[in-house]
Design brief:
Two copies of one chain form a homodimer. Chain A is an alpha+beta fold. In chain A, 38% of the residues lie in helices and 22% in strands. A five-stranded antiparallel beta sheet of chain A has the order 1-2-9-4-7. In chain A, strands 3-8-5-6 form a four-stranded antiparallel beta sheet. In chain A, helix 3 crosses helix 4 and helix 5 crosses helix 7. Chain A is globular and about 50 Å long. Chain A starts with a strand and ends in a 13-residue tail after the last helix. Chains A and B meet through strand 6 and helix 4 of A and strand 6 and helix 4 of B.
Chain lengths: 246, 246
Amino acid sequence: MATALKHPSSPPAGEVIGALALFDGLDAAAISRLVAAAQLRHAPKGQMLHLQDDPADYFYVIVQGWVKLFRETLEGTEAIIDVLTNGHLFGENAVFENDCYSCAAEAIEDTTLISLPTSLLKSMIESHNQLALNMLSSMSRHRLQQHREIEHLNVQNAPQRIGCFLLRLCKPDQAAPVTLHLPYDKTLIASRLGMKPETFSRALAKLKEQTGIRIVGPTVYIDRLQTLVSYTCNHCSTSFPCDDLG
Amino acid sequence: MATALKHPSSPPAGEVIGALALFDGLDAAAISRLVAAAQLRHAPKGQMLHLQDDPADYFYVIVQGWVKLFRETLEGTEAIIDVLTNGHLFGENAVFENDCYSCAAEAIEDTTLISLPTSLLKSMIESHNQLALNMLSSMSRHRLQQHREIEHLNVQNAPQRIGCFLLRLCKPDQAAPVTLHLPYDKTLIASRLGMKPETFSRALAKLKEQTGIRIVGPTVYIDRLQTLVSYTCNHCSTSFPCDDLG
């Protein structure tokens, strides 16, 4: 299942790793060590990537696809922590959590990932202060995003909260029309946003009606990005594009 | 309002700063720099400590009292992000957020704090890798706590979620009976837990009935800690004391 990419310049691992904000400002030797340790993996839809409380040997970058992070409750139900897509990282926090994963991770679409050893990340954070600083910035943006979501529960209606989820998937410099690929199972997005499936369906219908977005299977077409931005971001204290991405 | 503490050994700044997990493993010279820059402040109930988007000159450690963090929405309503008490820090993330506060902070009881310059934190994070690592651990615990809270929305009822909030204020080595001091205005705790005030009141009544805790004004008496732990933590995937504190 896993293919090792042994040479620093091997695409796509080199390109993907070089483009990550987490590794900004690292010298070429450090990037080479990461790229040399990177493995390209393909996970078919439904494959578990790791379980909660498993020893964390690897962390992952999503090249293409969708992954859900969840915690399994004692009753065996799932609490969705996040749904992630291209360019997102997961598992890297395990280096600060007794080297175990705090969530389980499952591919919810056919997914291509790059895995990197957490042991390498751990030793490099200790020896490269820049990497520690980048990781702090990344965690801080994540925290800011969670604060905004708490604010949104007060000021945004359900269609706007779905709009916000979609806008976070758009690249700021992307010209309209924008095409996004969601997971087939949209109830996972509903869970991520803390909505019941029926609330989510009604809200999505209203969002389509208000902003002209079109949804065909897992694909979302945003013909008029500015209309979606106006509808969604009007009541938020921040403007599009958000500064808490990445 | 502020009193400078100029000597490294001045209590309580020295003791409070030395006891913080954030500064674990720093050498005596580094701790001395922090203590020399520390100022003891007293904020009466209702005083704003900083506004959202203000330039962040200081971060704070609560010595005694309660502080709410909130975001003001465009409509002027408040979204409560957190309510913090003794030993908690706030404002330190501003160094990764363009040196501005992402939340407003207000003393909700008469509060004693230590303020430290964010500029000093910023320069020390860059020169002391141990401080960067401590800060990463702290943010990571915070993230883990948020993941647990998402899990709790699925598996805990409202009285259990209040029980969890109370248990997080207990020191693990504290012998029963435990006495805790809450803010007078308990609707702030309701907001923090995402509950409507009437839900919170009913849930608190049920928690008292089920666990024998007593509440007199702002004071909570926990005569049988184990009863509260059994009632609260039964459906959570972690046991008391939580490993995401600090």
